[in-house]
Amino acid sequence: MFAARVIFLVAGIYGLVVLLPMYAAESTFSAEYPPAITHTEFYYGFLGVTIAWQVAYVIMSWDIKRYRLMIIPGIIEKVGFVIPALILTVVGRLPWPLVGAAAIDFLFAGLFVFAWYKTSPAKTTT
């Protein structure tokens, strides 16, 4: 159970450290990864949703047993980036630094699955 708590705490803190600076980096991101962002609502919407998930991971780490069911959408959130990133990499449309970000999310998805099993409810005998 301790491992599961640490996994979610690390995931949340890592995500916040990586994502929060992106609020001030829209123009840099556009310059480094053309074409430029033309629909800023998607960029900032993405940041808002993903930052909310990072906060959820930190909250989950406080009482992972209580929030165990939230591990499922947490896995979906990670895989929801990994699968499109894999496809975009195969067709040559994803910049290599973002492949690294997808690899980290793949690792966290696997760790979340591990946490799911580590926090499984105790089996009752009848």
TrEMBL record:
Keywords: Membrane, Transmembrane, Transmembrane helix
Keyword hit for Transmembrane helix: yes
TM spans (from-to): 7-24, 44-62, 69-90, 96-117
Protein name, UniProt field: Uncharacterized protein
